[in-house]
Specification:
The complex is a heterodimer of chains A (131) and B (75). Chain A has 131 residues and is an alpha/beta fold. Chain A has one domain: 3-Layer(aba) Sandwich (Hypothetical Protein Ychn, Chain: A), CATH 3.40.1260. Helix content of chain A is 37%, strand content 18%. In chain A, strands 4-3-2-1-5 form a five-stranded parallel beta sheet, sandwiched between helices. In chain A, strand 1, helix 1 and strand 2 form a beta-alpha-beta unit. In chain A, helix 1 packs parallel to helix 3. Chain A starts with a strand and ends with a strand. In chain B, 29% of the residues lie in helices and 36% in strands. Chain B has a single domain, classed as 2-Layer Sandwich (Translation Initiation Factor IF3). In chain B, strands 1-2-4-3 form a four-stranded mixed beta sheet, covered by helices on one side. The chains are: A alpha/beta (131), B alpha+beta (75).
Chain lengths: 131, 75
């Protein structure tokens, strides 16, 4: 049985962030090794400024109240928790080049890599998830 | 039952109860018991799955006034 979970984060909205970081922290808290590959809009989720103001999908803004009422942690808090639990963040070099971003634009401790870096990690992971 | 530590995560939503439980169980010794108080209804199945993943034993659980109590013996 694999003890590795591989996640691709390819979207940059608030809901996407929760899907990615909830699964990642839950897996890490269950003694799994976890790596997330952030690509295209997904880079937003670990961007120092971007992650502070992630948007809800259009027309779903009314869920803000539900988030507050259910005491859902803020995304930066979940990111910090994920790092603390040892989740590995891999930022996509190619997307960074396209968007003119550098490693300093992201939270500390990330790794920058290409698709092969992720594929090599994910080859014996189960499950591999895409958000 | 000899409870070594109690963790109160009432009001917190998924995945925080599991995350906090993981961090707390890391601070006790094998064989010791952690009591967790949680109101997240997802915990009912999540704690069972989480304990199984880590090899821990849920010695007992109960629900009182909307609060779930888990007694987890560390593997």
């Amino acid at each position: 049985m694999s003890n590795k979970v591989a996640i691709i984060a390819a979207n940059g909205g608030l809901f996407d962030a929760y899907k990615v970081f909830n699964i990642a922290t839950a897996a890490a808290a269950s003694d799994k090794e976890v790596a997330i590959f952030f690509t295209f809009e997904g880079l937003n989720l670990i961007h120092k400024q971007g992650m502070q103001a992630l948007e809800m999908p259009a027309g779903k803004e009314h869920f803000a109240e539900g988030f507050a009422k259910a005491q859902i942690p803020a995304i930066p808090e979940l990111v910090e928790m994920a790092i603390e639990l040892g989740v590995k963040f891999i930022a996509c070099q190619m997307t960074m080049d396209v968007m003119g971003l550098t490693k300093e634009d992201f939270v500390d401790g990330i790794e920058v890599g290409g698709a092969v870096t992720f594929l090599e990690y994910a080859k014996d992971a189960a499950p591999t998830l895409t958000f | 039952m000899n409870i070594t530590k109690t963790l109160d995560v009432k009001g917190l939503a998924c995945p925080m109860p599991i995350v906090r439980t993981k961090k707390t169980i890391d601070t006790i010794n094998s064989g010791e018991v952690l009591e967790v108080l949680v109101t997240d209804k997802g915990a009912l199945s999540d704690f069972a799955a989480w304990a199984k993943a880590g090899g821990h034993t849920i010695l007992d659980q109960k629900e009182e006034a909307g609060v779930l109590y888990f007694y987890i013996q560390k593997a």
